[in-house]
Design a protein that fits this description.
Elements (H helix, E strand, L loop, with lengths): L3 E12 L2 E12 L3 E5 L6 H9 L6 E6 L2 E2 L5 H6 L2 E4 L11 H9 L5 H4 L6 H14 L14 H15 L3 E5 L7 H14 L4 E5 L3 H7 L2 E6 L2 E6 L1 H6 L1 H8 L6
Parallel strand pairs: 3-8, 3-9, 6-7, 7-8
Antiparallel strand pairs: 1-2, 1-4, 4-5, 9-10
Helix pairs in contact: 3-5, 3-6, 5-6, 6-7
C-alpha cells in the first residue's frame, strides 16, 4: 500500500467573494510526480500558494505525510519538509554555483561553515550529486550572475535537491526556456523522481509528456479531471474546457 505524501481535503480560498480555489481535494503518493494542468486563472499557482503557506486558506485542510500543516507560517511549512521553486529563480547571484549549493546543503548557520569551511562529508556528497544531475560541472566556479537563464533554473533545482525536502513544489520550471533547455530540465526532473514527491505546475505540453506520471486538471478553481496523459487527452470535459480539439501536443 502506497504512503500518502500530500493530502489536500476540501481546500479553498475566497478573495472578496471570488473563489480562486474551490473545494479541491487530491492525494499524492510518496515519490510521485503530479502535474497540475489548467488554463490561466484555473487556480494552479494559488493552490501551490495554499499548500506552501504563502496564502492562507479559508476552507479545507492540508497534510504532509502525517502532519497537518493547514495555514502554518511559510517557514514552519518549509521546516516540515516542503520546498518550493518559483518561476523567478532565487539564488545568491554573487556566489559561485558550488558556493550556492554548499550554503543550501549546510545546516550550520555560521557564515564560514556555509561557505565550505568544515563542510561535512555527507553534505559534500549531496552537492557533488546535485552538480552531476543539473549538469553544471563545468560552471562550478562561475558566479550565479553569469549563468544563462536555463542554467540559473537548474542551479535552483540543485539547491532544492541538496536541501532534501520531502515534497517539492515547482511552479512553471521551464518558463522562458529554449526547447533544448526545456528538454534538459525534463531530464533533471526525471532524475529526481522517486527521491522526492513533486507537484509541478506547467503549460508546456511537450514537457508535460516527458515528466508526467499523473495529471490533475484544474478549471475555474476546481478539479476537473485526473489521470495519465492518454486519459486526460481523451477526456471530453478537458478538451472542451482547456485543450481544444487537438488535445495535448
Amino acid at each position: 500500500m502506497s504512503t500518502v505524501a500530500v493530502m489536500i481535503d476540501g481546500l479553498g480560498v475566497n478573495f472578496g467573494g471570488f473563489k480562486a480555489v474551490d473545494n479541491v481535494s487530491l492525494t499524492v503518493d510518496d515519490g510521485e510526480l503530479r502535474v497540475l494542468l489548467g488554463a490561466n486563472g484555473a487556480g494552479k499557482t494559488t493552490l501551490m500558494d495554499l499548500v506552501s503557506g504563502k496564502t492562507p486558506s479559508t476552507e479545507g485542510r492540508v497534510w504532509v505525510y502525517d502532519t497537518e500543516i493547514t495555514n502554518w507560517p511559510e517557514h514552519l511549512i518549509a521546516r516540515a519538509g516542503v520546498g518550493r521553486k518559483f518561476q523567478i529563480p532565487s539564488v545568491f547571484r554573487d556566489l559561485t554555483v558550488k558556493q550556492n549549493l554548499r550554503v543550501a546543503s549546510c545546516r550550520r548557520t555560521a557564515v564560514m561553515a556555509n561557505l565550505g569551511f568544515g563542510h561535512p562529508a555527507i553534505a559534500r556528497e549531496k552537492v557533488d550529486r546535485a552538480i552531476e544531475l543539473i549538469g553544471l560541472r563545468d560552471q562550478i566556479n562561475t558566479a550565479a550572475a553569469d549563468l544563462s537563464h536555463g542554467q540559473t533554473q537548474w542551479l535552483e533545482l540543485g539547491i532544492l535537491m541538496v536541501q532534501n525536502p520531502k515534497v517539492i513544489l515547482l511552479d512553471e520550471p521551464t518558463a522562458g526556456m529554449t526547447q533544448a533547455e526545456t528538454m534538459r530540465t525534463a531530464e533533471i526532473i526525471n532524475g529526481m523522481k522517486g527521491q522526492h514527491t513533486m507537484l509541478v505546475v506547467e503549460h508546456d505540453m511537450g514537457f508535460v509528456r516527458e515528466i508526467a506520471q499523473r495529471i490533475t486538471v484544474l478549471h475555474l478553481g476546481r478539479v476537473l479531471a485526473e489521470g495519465g496523459i492518454s486519459e486526460i487527452e481523451a477526456n471530453p470535459k478537458v478538451r472542451a474546457a482547456y485543450l481544444g480539439s487537438k488535445g495535448l501536443s
